[in-house]
Every structure is written in structure tokens, then in C-alpha cells.
Amino acid sequence: MGRTGTLCNCFIASFRTPISICRRKKPLIPRRKLNLMAASMDPLDTKTYQQNVLVMRHGDRLDNFDPTWEKTADRPWDPPLIQNGLHRAFGTGREFRTRLPFPIHRVFVSPFLRCIQTASEVVAALCSVDDDPNAKSSNDVVAIDPSRVKVSIEYGLCEMLNKTAIRIDVAPKDGIFRFDVPQLEALIPSGTVDPTVEPVYKEVAFGYLQCVFIYFPFSTT
């Protein structure tokens, strides 16, 4: 037996964040409501549930600010964030924590380095025990509570891995895009990675979007 819920219009935060994405003052991602079916362990459960989902793009990538970087990079198709991009991601995580009307409990993130770094900063801000107003990045966080948020790397959130989607001058010559998942997981705040989650795509074949997919659990309405 299933139960019907609502996937609410939480794709764009209603407040201005350090990395708000707007064009002519209109959100690039429209707010929508979708019907959501969820399995219920209790056949007598007739409550209506609500699930909130937030989609966030990665921060400022280095190759957009330093075009010479890719000439000496081992992985020119997988640039990191610039320092300001890290700061903006951390600041956005802090805004999410203090101003969203619901908690964030789960994060799904693309294996691209820029996405991992963005998610890492957001999660550090969400899990910070002592919210220092002077903190600029995860390096300034003294202690975190890893039970607040759990993170999973998901290949299904990748950009399409081919020379059409990836800049052709930096794509791997052999056409193979490799990710070291254990190494990437080590960049995420300690204790927040959830090893029990079964990925949708276990191997990289293709994807659609470089992004961080943040999940908020069901709440009754």
C-alpha cells in the first residue's frame, strides 16, 4: 500500500543566498508541485506527507577564472573551486541552516570535484556545533555533529560524460572519465558519508547535471 504526499516547491530558496541563481529577478528553476507516492509500513496510515527537495548548483570553478590552470592540470575536465567559491558555498549552507523553514537531512552530490567541494562546505555549515559568525569556510569550523546530515555520491547527477558536453579541449583523450570515490568521500566532513545508500548509477555511463541534490525527509501536514 502506498501513501500520497506532495513534492513541494522548494527548488529555489525564497531568500537571497550568496549564490542565488536568478535572471531578470525570476528563478531559473520554476517552483512546482508534484504528486509523490511513498511506501507505507502501516496499511492504516492515511496521513498526507510532504517532502521538500532543493537543487543547488556548484560554486565558482577555477578554470573560469584562471584559463592557464588547465594547461598543467592532471584532470583539466574536473576543476576545483576557487577560494571565494568555497566561501560562498559555506555561506549558503549557513543561510540554509538559519532561514529554511525545514531541516536538511540528506545530500546527494555529483562526483565532480567542484560539486564535492560545494557540498562539503554546505554540510560543514549545516553540521557546525558552534556557529561562529566570523567563520568563512569549513576550515573555521571547530566541531560538527555528523548525525545532522548524511551525504552520498551519486553518478546519476553527473553532467553527460562525452566530448560534446565536456569542453572538448580538456576532455580525456581516451574518452574515459575516472573518479576515485573513496578519495572524494574523504573530502566530505567526517562521519557524514552514508555507506549504506545504494547508488542509482553504480558506474559512470552518462548523466545530466552537475549539481548538489539535497533531500528533506517527510513531514506530516
Automatic annotation (TrEMBL):
Gene3D superfamilies: Phosphoglycerate mutase-like
InterPro entries: His_Pase_superF_clade-1 (IPR013078), His_PPase_superfam (IPR029033), Phosphatase_SH3-domain (IPR051710)
Signal peptide feature range: none
Any single Pfam family the record assigns to this protein: His_Phos_1
Protein name: Phosphoglycerate mutase family protein
Native species: Gossypium raimondii
